[in-house]
Amino acid sequence: MDFDFIVIGAGSGGVAASRRAASHGARVAIVEGRRVGGTCVLRGCVPKKLLMYAAQLGDAFREARGYGWAVETPAFEMPRWAAAKAAETTRLEGIYRQLLAGSGVTLIEGHAQLDDAGAVCVGEQRLTAPQVLVATGSAPVTDSIPGIAACATSDDLLDLNELPSRAAIIGGGFIAVEFASMLVRLGVAVDLFYRDRLPLRGFDQMLRTAAAAELQAAGVQLHPGSVPTQIQRGGSGLLLLMGEDRVLDFPWVLNATGRRPNTAGLGLALDERGAVLIDADLRTSRPGVCAIGDVTNRVNLTPVAIAEGRALADSLFGPTPRRVDLSRVPSAVFMLPPIATVGPTEEAALAAGHDLHVYETDFRPMKQAFIGGTERTRMKLLVDAADDRVLAVHMVGADAPEIVQSLAVALTAGATKAHFDQTIAMHPTAAEEFVLLRTLSRSLTTSQALASR
Ligand code: NDP
Fold first, then answer.
1. Of 111, 154, 446, 450, which sees the most CB atoms within 10 A?
2. Mean pLDDT, to the nearest integer, of 123-139?
3. 300 lines ligand 1 (CB under 6 A)
4. Which residues fall within 8 angstroms of residue 163, CB to CB, at 6 or more apart?
5. Is the per-residue pLDDT at 453 higher than 70?
6. How many whole angstroms from 139 Cα to the centroid of ligand 1?
7. Residue 201 CA to ligand 1 centre (angstroms)
């Protein structure tokens, strides 16, 4: 055997797994066919958040006037952002390469395939190891609607040098909502088309309603229950065929209709949605081959892939096998204002058999009230009526991801509503509202929920 562990895919999950395995003394190789760093660092979370900061600064110029600043008419120059973004992702890729080298992980550049005997083939090289990890991630879906392959994806958006004047965005998930919120602030006229009544299917109703309201307030044209049946090149760029002879013309269209696992050339058993099938110990259908992260299409978030990669490396090469608990994964939608959540939605908590005490608040934050702004902050706590445990925290408003990440620790520790009530507030903050919620908004029982279905 050439190595003890070969990792396919040098994204966040693969890099974390390879370094942890090497720290246990394993001889490790990592194979990458594109740039080192993966979707999160190069084409996702990191550049997306850098664009979000650019959009947020647009709001800040407007708000600054209300706080007494004289601000000249600001103008956003995409080429300058694009150059700075390229430099930053190159810097981060360099750091990832250094981390791998410093950990003693061998980087092999090229596209990997698994052969019938379970060896990892990269070009002419045939590498063997008793343990192989598939961490190949996912890529944008390009066949969700006939003709949608002609549209830009989030990869393309983050590589733009100039922004279009008008854009259609198709989809109502994370990517659609985040980019609609950003692009409209950067001066693009945005139309958002999605299938459901509200965006962000799967999120708590309060967050979904707030997301639609805030997007609309920012100037995004919402088209609920409306997606093209076909897309064609033509007009000023692309034509959206909406049915009943209705055709809409946009110079630029973003396909935000989801992502699909990268499974080609691996010969692994897949589920009906094309994801690699794994068991509770991350083992695939092939002996000695495990998989983590987006390629398994369960909770498609970077920190989950990292946690799984480290747990797997500890289990294979460390003293004690362990699994990652995915029952309480916090997540954020980086629209403006941002959304953050940990724990189930109200509907999911009831469906899981919890009678609930619901505490909610909705207010205009101090910073907005001072300048006559309309942006609101909304918070919700779901409390188990049986034992007072806080099951979920949902928030939309400034700094929501920073606040909810910290509250996720309390939930992991099993905090009760009484613990929240005993916590002294930090004033003046928005976060203090979470420990000052005394008025019960409503109580819900599972039997009522069943009856109303
Ligand atoms: P999502 O799965 O979040 O959303 C996909 C959207 O596409 C949904 O609104 C879905 O509609 C819609 N859709 C799917 N198929 C069709 C179709 N045929 N016609 C019309 N609409 C369709 O995917 P994203 O692409 O937004 O993001 C991919 C993944 O990346 C996410 O799952 C998330 O895990 C991750 N991500 C995380 C971020 C974060 O943590 N902040 C940011 C960005 C991405 P419907 O709801 O009706 O099914």
1. 154
2. 97
3. yes
4. 78, 183, 186, 187, 188
5. no
6. 12
7. 9
Q: Between 3.50.50.60, 3.30.1330.60, 3.40.50.2000, 3.40.50.300, what CATH number should domain 148-257 receive? A: 3.50.50.60
**Model confidence at 282: pLDDT above 90:** yes
Helix crossing, 174-185 with 45-66: angle to 10°? 40
Question: Does residue 174's CB lie within 6 angstroms of at least one atom of ligand 1?
Answer: yes
The identity of residue 382, as a single letter, is L
Fold of the 5-139+260-317 domain: FAD/NAD(P)-binding domain (3.50.50)
Quick check: CB of 157 below 6 Å from ligand 1?
no
Report CA(76)–ligand 1 centroid distance (Å): 28
Domain ranges of the chain: 5-139+260-317, 148-257, 337-452
427 is annotated as an active-site residue? yes
Tell me the CA–centroid distance for residue 55 and ligand 1, in Å. Answer: 21
Question: How do 28-32 and 5-8 pair as beta strands?
Answer: parallel
Question: How confident is the model at residue 272, as a pLDDT?
Answer: 94
Cα separations in angstroms, 15 against 28, 160, 288, 293, 452: 11, 27, 19, 12, 48
Mutation probe of ligand 1 site: the residue of 138, 175, 231 with most atoms within 8 A of C-beta: 175
pTM: 0.96
- The answer to whether the CB of 266 falls within 8 A of the CB of 115 is no
Q: Do domains 5-139+260-317 and 337-452 have the same CATH topology?
A: no
- What is the CATH code for 337-452? 3.30.390.30
